[in-house]
Structures are given as structure tokens and as C-alpha cells.
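Typical record is below.
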Amino acid sequence: QVQLVESGGGLVQAGGSLRLSCAASGRTFSMYAMGWFRQAPGKEREFVAAIRWSGLILYYADSVKGRFTISSDDAKKMVYLQMNSLKPEDTAVYSCAADPRDWITLKAVPGYWGQGTQVTVSS
């Protein structure tokens, strides 16, 4: 089992920045990839970014490329999502996810989820 706990969400003005954190515990060594999803009210869940514990970045959604940066700290078992140049359309619940199989499976059906953290970007 793996437990994931997100933090760092909040309210920010458009153009601002936030850094989300995901603390992982349990059998983290067995996870192939870690990632971030987001879901806005009335919209489908969107896969935002993925990374390996080594720091190898696997994926960014086109909607966040150049603005968001995913990173990992293997020693601390932390995954981060630095979000810059935030837009109102970035408003969503952001969730950390992990999967032991591969990042394609992570994107489709993650094995583990965090509880989510709300990010609200005001215009």
C-alpha cells in the first residue's frame, strides 16, 4: 500500500504561483511513476504531469507546458508541482497519484490517489 497526502493548494491571483507537495509513504519503492491530475467542476479529469523517483520527467499536458514543473525528491519521498503564470482555467482540485506498473497505466487508472487539494485562481 501507498499513502499520498497533498498540500500547498490555495487561492491565488492570475499570473501568480503556487507549489503543490505530495508526501508519499508506504511501499513507495514499488511505484514506477508518480503524477498529478486535476479536475475542475463539470469537466473531465486531466492528467497534468508525471515523473519517476529518479527525476526523469515522463509527461506534461500541453495545457501546462512551460508554466508547470514537476519534480521529485527520492530521499524525502516527495513530489512537487511548481505552478507559475497561473490562469483562471487552472482552477481545479489537484490530486497526486502513483502506480507500480507504468506511466500509461498511471495516466489511465492510477493504483493510488491522494485526497486532493483545491487550487483557485482568481481573475
